[in-house]
Amino acid sequence: MGETRVDLLHLLEDLRDAYPGAAEETILTEVVANSLDSGATAVTIAIDPARATLTIVDDGVGMRRRDLARYHDVAATTKARGEGIGFAGVGIKIGLLVSEEVLTETRLGKHHLATVWRLASRHRAPWKWVPPPGLVAEHGTAVRLQLKNPLSPLLDPGFIEGALWRHFQPLLDPALTDILTAHYPRGVRFVVNGRPLAQEGSQAPERAPIAVRLARKRRPSASGYLIRDRLPLAEERRGLAISTFGKVIKRGWDWLGITPSSPERVAGLIEAPALAQALTLSKADFIRAGARGAIYLAYRKAIQEAVARQLAVWGDLREAGEPAHRRAARPVERDLEAVLLDLADEFPLLAALVERRAGGQRALPMGGGPVEGQRPGGLVAGPAQPAAEPQPAHVAPPATEGPEEPGAPEPAAPEPLPREATVELPSPRGPRRPARYGLSIQFEQRPDDPELARLVETTVWVNEAHPAYRRAVASRSEGYHIAVASAMALAPLAVEPDEEHAFVTAFLASWGAALDRRKGRGRR
């Protein structure tokens, strides 16, 4: 028998509270995600309300004896960053909070083992070896939770099926089979109480495929679709979902930064396997700083432009007017383009905030080596056709600025053309050309936040409630305050923490020099 003697109850409650959904949904989602990470092709879920047990069995790799022993260490994991969608066996560990006992059985070759684990008190979580009950046939892992609450949602088959659909929709949608084949060559089946979950595609009357490609890649690096219905969609299906390795990470429109005119009638799903390397440690969000953050921002920009083009074709793109910025913010926004271009050579990750216009005429060179996991090339987000098919004559060429105007489709076209975007992540070298920045400044009230501003996707949100901002207003120095706040918000994306001071200094110097350039252009 083994046990730990830290404040386990507090630690497990913190893990539970780190996830936005209910604890039961987190437990189910994380257990299934870890099964998929183990190479499972079938996940079988059995519910026994009479005994208040939930059993999840997979046919993955399984564990050896030493791995199963380490599995009971709340802080231990064998996972590597960027290689999976499950987080350190969190599902089972949070399951201790709602279970009288957790049984784990695993089988790998000659290793056939089982343990039982429980939370005995705030400081004790003893476990012990037990004879395997025979839940695993040839290989894989099974967990059985003896639940404390006989009315737990985990004993409701409808709740189980709904949670699987919300969090693993790409694995149940035939439209995403092709892009997931490389990671799941034999597919994945879910079985709930002996009934397989059938694959289900969208039945909306209007549907448009979306594809994002990396340079010189025949297969899409991200693909999916948009749908539009005549009637409002169910609340849980609205918005655009982004997933990686079949697990939905975000859903809605806020993460994308654009909103249709009728968001209640438009939905979609985009699968991007490469974004697994940009997941946070909890695998519940994407990193927005450093090299991995640059990968996410580049993909987001390309998806944003492809979706915006399709919404424009449907006539459903909400035209955002000029934001109601304060007068002092406008000069800073005008100078951001020059500042980002000036600093790109010294701070390459700023390239994620500069977009290359459709058609390939504008690019921002990157200094130094390429970002980890990326291929050389400039950031591109524009229409492209599949490599194996010639471009139809009726498709209009891409414009040099602004959103692409839709071409006039031929009446006899049997299928809609996919809305594709080509992404080439920032290039290490090349000629310096003008570019259009993708950064904006907005304002919000956060009285309890000590930060001057924060970077959300590609928007700097200045904290109007901060005492320093109120002092800047009183002394008529709002412009300088906004520039400092913008620099501090961008610093975590651009550099490591110990280099943030140098970045802020360089940013302010470039921002000040932009005033001289603007005066020079006025004189000319």
Task: Provide an overview of this structure.
- The protein is of the alpha+beta class and 524 residues long.
- Among the domains are: 8-170, Histidine kinase-like ATPase, C-terminal domain (Heat Shock Protein 90, 2-Layer Sandwich); 439-523, no CATH class.
- 27% of the residues lie in helices and 20% in strands.
- It contains eleven helices and 19 strands.
- It has an eight-stranded mixed beta sheet, with helices on one face. A six-stranded mixed beta sheet has the order 12-11-13-10-9-15, with helices on one face.
- Helix 9 runs antiparallel to helix 10 and helix 10 packs across helix 11 (500-523).
- The N and C termini lie far apart (82 Å).
Task: Give the C-alpha Rg.
Answer: 26 Å
* Low-pLDDT segments, ≥5 res: 320-325, 356-415, 426-437
What is the SS-derived class? alpha+beta
CATH superfamily of one domain: Histidine kinase-like ATPase, C-terminal domain
Q: Examine the coordinates and then state which fold CATH places here, giving the name of the CATH topology of one domain.
A: Heat Shock Protein 90
Number of helices: 11
* Bulk shape: globular
Q: What CATH first level of one domain would be assigned?
A: Alpha Beta
- Report the helical percentage: 25-40%
- Which architecture of one domain would the CATH scheme give at its second level? 2-Layer Sandwich
User: Hey, roughly how much beta strand do the residues contain?
Assistant: 15-25%
